[in-house]
Amino acid sequence: MLLIVKIIAQFAYPLLMALLLSVIAAILPWRGHRRGGGLLLVVAIGWLWLWSTPVFSDWLRATLERRNMPVLVERMPSADAIVVLGGAVVAAAPPERLYPDLGAAVDRVWHAARLYQAGKAPLVLVSGGYLPWSGIDRPEAEVMVALLQRLGVPATAIQPEPRSRTTRENRDNSLPLLRTRGVRSILLVTSALHMPRALALFQATDLRVIPAPTDVEVIPRDNAHPLRWLPDAQALADSTRAFKEYLGRWVDQLLG
C-alpha cells in the first residue's frame, strides 16, 4: 500500500505533471486539436519553469520554514524527552561505501545532541526505519544511535524506534515507547521544512509538543539577479520537497 501511495504521489509532482501535460499536448494535434495542444504545451513548459526557478523555490519553502523558526538551545524549555525524526542519513553502508552517507538533514542529529548536552531532556528517542524497495536493510535509527553516541550522548539515554517509514509512523510507533517511559512532554527535532507536518501529527496526541526545528535552508537573497529567475535543477528538487510536505499534510488531514 505504501508503494502504491508513493507511485500515485509521483504523478502530482511538478516534473512528472509537466511531462504528462507535454505528452497530452503532443497527442492533441493528432486528434484535430492543434491549438489546444499548443496552449497545453505552453502551460506545461511554464509550469515546469515556475517550479524550477530559485525565486519560487525559496518562497515556497519559506512558507513552511518560517512557521517554526529555530531557537538558541539555551532558550529552549526542558521536556521529558527529545524525539528525533529520521531522514538525516542513508541507513546502510553497502560494499561501495565503507560508512553510511550523511544527508543535509543530519543537522537533526547534531541538534538533538546539543539539546541533550544542554540538559533539556534526559532521553533521546530516534525514529526511523527503511523503505523495502530502497535496497537498504538497516534501520536509520541504528545509524542515528551510533552518531549520537559519537557526539557524547550515552547509550543508556537513547531509545531507538526502527520501524517507521513515514512521518505518521514516526508518531504512531514512538508513542508506545514514550508512554512506557512516562513521557508527557517532548522536544520534537526535525528539519524546519518538515516541522509543520510533523508538529501537527504529534500535537494530535496527548503529549505536550515543543518544536525544535533545525536544518533551515532558505536565507534572504537578492532576487534581482537574473540567475534567480532561470530554471535550475536544484531549485526544482527543493520546490518538489516543499510540494511533498504540503501534499503529505493534505493526506494527513484526509486520514484524520
Essential attributes:
single chain, 256 residues, alpha/beta, Rossmann fold, five-stranded parallel β-sheet, 48% helix
What does this protein look like?
With 256 residues, the protein is an alpha/beta fold. The protein folds into two domains: 2-65 and 233-255, no CATH class; 73-211, 3-Layer(aba) Sandwich (Rossmann fold). It has helices spanning 2-10, 14-27, 34-52, 54-65, 107-117, 140-150, 167-180, 195-203, 233-255; strands at 81-85, 124-127, 158-161, 185-189, 208-211. It has a five-stranded parallel β-sheet with strand order 3-2-1-4-5, with helices on both faces. Helix 2 (14-27) packs antiparallel against helix 3, helix 4 runs parallel beside helix 9 and helix 8 runs parallel beside helix 9 (233-255). It is elongated and about 70 Å long.
Topology, number of strands: 5
Radius of gyration: 21 Å
- Read across the widest sheet, the strand sequence of neighbours is 3-2-1-4-5
- The secondary-structure class comes to alpha/beta
Distance between the termini: 18 Å
Shape: elongated
Name of the CATH homologous superfamily of the largest domain: HUPs
In round numbers, the mean pLDDT is: 92
Contiguous low-pLDDT stretches (5 residues minimum) are: none
**Number of helical segments with 4 or more residues:** 9
β content, as a range? 5-15%
CATH hierarchy, class of the largest domain: Alpha Beta
Sheet with the most strands, sense and barrel status: 5 strands, parallel
Q: What helical percentage do the residues reach?
A: 40-55%
The CATH topology assignment of the largest domain is: Rossmann fold
- The SSE order reads HHHHEHEHEHEHEH
Named CATH architecture of the largest domain: 3-Layer(aba) Sandwich
In total, the number of domains comes to 2
